[in-house]
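Handoff note, outgoing to incoming analyst
You'll be picking up this chain. Sequence as last confirmed:
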Amino acid sequence: SAIMFAILLLALICHFHGAFTLPNPAEVIPRGVFPAPSEIEARQGGFYYSFWSEGSGSFRCTNGAAGSYTATWGGQGGGFVCGKGWNTGGNRAVKYSGTYTPTGPGYLALYGWTTNPLIEYYIVDSYGLLLPGEPWTPKGNFSFEEGTYQLYQSTRVNKPSIVGTATFQQYWSVRTEKRVGGTITTGKHFDAWSKAGMRLGGHNYMIIATEGYTNGKNYSSGSSSITVS
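Most recent structure output, in case you need it:
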């Protein structure tokens, strides 16, 4: 009967459902697309791992145990960002350690995104060359027990973001004395940005990132080994 056929068809669908389940999008991160927060965080001892790249350079980022990762990069053209942190950013005392040996444009930074408004932000602890892709507008400076930071704001027009190609603001805190390792208390920077008229939105992911990129004839290369705790 039609009823028996429908029951049999439903049983077959349920039995074979697992065989046709699509892969978790979190496990496939194509070049040129920013990864979105996902279940990968829970599988890495509570740390979220992100790796994005574009262009013709050679970029390798290896996801280590717990809060660790390594990166090596070189070549001519393109850029990358990779790192370890949290699915959802916010006010946190972020401790990290490791090594960072860059040549050319790039940063070692606490890096993250917010939405509504869409903001890409950096708290830069060290760098190779400070050669931003867009002009920086100085927004003052501030000092506290972790160091002195210069504040900047810039605009990206029709560039990759966590919501696809978009136009958005970048917020920057750049440490006046470079360091690799220590504590970054994000709330102190968020408060300083707010006082400078730099408003954040709802937090997306936040990582301790290694970034390298090409600016004109200035190419980036180097290596890093970072552990976040």
